[in-house]
Amino acid sequence: MIRPILIHPDPRLKKPCDPVAEVTDDLHQLAKDMLETMYAAPGIGLAAPQVGVMKRVLVMDCIKDGPRRPMVLINPRLLWASEDQTVYEEGCLSIPEQFADVTRPAEVRVEWLSLDGSVQEEQFSGLWATCVQHEMDHLEGKLFIDYLGPLKRQMITRKMVKLKRERARQD
Ligand code: NI
């Protein structure tokens, strides 16, 4: 089931999420819905707070061509980040049609719980590294526009307020 994606500004996008205590059937359904919502958007990553669920869960798939690689990360934890930095023009499904350069570590090592209850670990680079860091930020209530200067951030926020007003009128 595709779930509605919250649009910034929304208090739920600014709050740290709670750790997942147990992998339940509800969590399986949440992960499935999040992947469906992400692919439909379309996007390469989605964090649970973006669908209003304040839990430490994110999904991503950064494969552009070729077979899908849907990933579900529960309680992700950063183990290591490279000193090497990289710049990507980031966007966010909660901040539609706005893009800006963000500098982040080029490579990160992350540990997480998978849906089958096992602990996984992987080193991400390229777009995957940027994506996983962007999504992990969501779990702390942080958005990519928080890396920008105040003027740029306020400009984008004003556009989003307007967009939400227009969408509310259409409903
Ligand atoms: Ni995002």
Description:
- The strands form 2 sheets. This protein has a 5-stranded antiparallel β-sheet. It has a two-stranded antiparallel ribbon with strand order 4-5.
- The protein contains 3 helices and 7 strands; from the N terminus they run αβββββββαα.
- With 171 residues, the chain is an alpha+beta fold.
- It has a single domain (11-170), classed as Peptide deformylase (Peptide Deformylase, Alpha-Beta Complex), CATH 3.90.45.10.
- The mean pLDDT is 97.
- It starts with 24 loop residues before the first helix and ends with a helix.
- 30% of the residues lie in helices and 30% in strands.
- It has helices at residues 25-40, 126-139, 150-170, and strands at 45-47, 57-60, 71-81, 85-92, 95-105, 107-113, 119-125.
- The site of nickel (II) ion has 5 residues, from helix 2.
Core attributes:
171 residues, globular, alpha+beta, 3 helices, binds nickel (II) ion, Peptide Deformylase, five-stranded antiparallel β-sheet
Secondary structure: elements and pairs:
Blueprint: H1 25-40, E1 45-47, E2 57-60, E3 71-81, E4 85-92, E5 95-105, E6 107-113, E7 119-125, H2 126-139, H3 150-170
Antiparallel strand pairs: 1-2, 2-3, 3-6, 4-5, 6-7
Nickel (II) ion (NI) binds next to helix 2.
